[in-house]
Design brief:
10 strands; alpha+beta; 32% strand; 183 residues; five-stranded antiparallel sheet
Length: 183
């Protein structure tokens, strides 16, 4: 910028805001860089005046779903188990695995017989926390979780993912056929 370019900068800002420019108008006739600067300043002022449009409905619903109490809950569906699930039915197996699917992911669970019930070990991507028996726990950074249940009918768990909740039904209901499929 030329020396007098610096002197008229405040007047250029005033022009961009729609006010009088004083000596700036004469200078603009001779200085291309100041004309360019005025155009940029004017664009900024116009952008600041612009009205904000409403967000798309899908985005609004997504943000609402994240809010506690308004999250969408998806029911997971059992898609595969290890062969030892049959042994669990007869109370002969000491452990078995199950894979549950939901809209855009899956959770892997392992059920291990303990002295007085079952330990459930699981993992799911984007897991924030999990809840069973009304008690919510913070998930580990790797998406793993574990809990104990007195029997297979008490192994249901709610996974709180980044964008939704996923309900995994008790595997005991899956074994008896009492649970009716995914949403």
């Amino acid at each position: 910028m030329k020396k007098n370019c610096k002197e008229i900068y405040d007047e250029l800002v005033a022009l961009a805001l729609g006010e009088k420019g004083g000596q700036a108008r004469d200078h603009l006739a001779e200085c291309q860089s100041c004309r360019k600067l005025l155009a940029e300043l004017t664009d900024v002022v116009e952008a600041l005046k612009a009205r904000f449009a409403d967000a798309p409905a899908a985005l609004i619903e997504h943000v609402k779903a994240i809010r506690i109490g308004e999250r969408k809950t998806t029911l997971a569906r059992l898609v595969s188990t290890s062969l030892s699930l049959a042994g669990a039915r007869a109370e002969e197996a000491d452990s078995f695995q199950a894979v549950y699917e939901y809209a855009d992911g899956q959770a892997r669970l392992m059920y291990v017989r303990q002295n007085r019930g079952w330990e459930v070990l699981g993992q799911a991507a984007n897991l924030v926390s999990w809840q069973t028996g009304g008690k919510e726990q913070t998930a580990r950074a790797d998406g793993r979780f574990s809990f104990k249940a007195s029997n297979l009918d008490k192994t249901g768990v709610r996974l709180r993912l980044a964008d939704k909740d996923v309900e995994i039904p008790p595997v005991g209901k899956e074994l008896s056929g009492d649970f009716g499929g995914a949403c």
